[in-house]
Amino acid sequence: MEITPNDIKFIRWIAHKFGYPLDEMEKYAYENYIPIAKPEVADFLSFIVKLKKPNNILEIGTAIGYSTIIMAKAYSEVSVVTIERDINLAEIAKENFKKAKVEDRIELICGEAQHVLPNLTKMYDLIFVDAAKGQYIEFYKELKRLLSKEGVILWDNILYKGYVVNEKNVKHKRRTIVYRMREFIEILYQDKTLYTVILPLGDGLAVSFKEESSC
């Protein structure tokens, strides 16, 4: 999601909280129209990582590495695999990982997630999805396969600028994405193997975890 001027003061608070180089990264993202995690989502990411202490995290959509660094800094023992399709953003992210001194715990794969995911075999305790909204359905089955027994999936921007719940104001060029996101939300809620809630954070954050089988 794009960062607005109203977000900047909150992002700067997040950047100050988590430290260098996030303060530089939020400025770069704003000036270059690069979407990064909303401040409240960034804070929640740090919270959930500190709470669960995952061994392995998978992220879909690295951009410049903002959320990747936040998760890596939240728990010093975690390893992160992050996927980014834009080679230029991937190179910027790698430099940011070095500045944050977390590069030894982050593996960045440059490529289309739908092509990369089928080749992954490791199980992940936490998965953060912040990529092309129209492709969440395509990612869904592979991410369930890669989710550990007590794992959690976070789906960012699930309400897509509010259009998902405000049908009257959906512009024509956005209708396909909106309809696909509505379809995806319905799939999540109908899936009896997952328990999903949507939190009013940022542009909507869906949280899914594997439901224990009943006796």
UniProtKB/TrEMBL annotation:
EC number(s) on file: 2.1.1.-
UniProt-recorded Gene Ontology molecular function terms: magnesium ion binding; O-methyltransferase activity; S-adenosylmethionine-dependent methyltransferase activity; tRNA (uridine) methyltransferase activity
Keyword entries, A-Z: Magnesium, Metal-binding, Methyltransferase, S-adenosyl-L-methionine, Transferase, tRNA processing
Alphabetized InterPro entries for the sequence: Cation-dep_OMT, SAM-dependent_MTases_sf, SAM_O-MeTrfase, TrmR_methyltr
GO BP terms in the entry: tRNA methylation
Reactions catalysed: 5-hydroxyuridine(34) in tRNA + S-adenosyl-L-methionine = 5-methoxyuridine(34) in tRNA + S-adenosyl-L-homocysteine + H(+)
Similarity section: Belongs to the class I-like SAM-binding methyltransferase superfamily. Cation-dependent O-methyltransferase family.
Stated name of the protein: tRNA 5-hydroxyuridine methyltransferase
Residues the record lists as binding S-adenosyl-L-methionine: 67, 84, 112-113, 130
Function description: Catalyzes the methylation of 5-hydroxyuridine (ho5U) to form 5-methoxyuridine (mo5U) at position 34 in tRNAs.
Enzyme class: transferase
SUPFAM superfamilies noted in UniProt: S-adenosyl-L-methionine-dependent methyltransferases (SSF53335)
Protein residues bound to Mg(2+): 130, 156-157
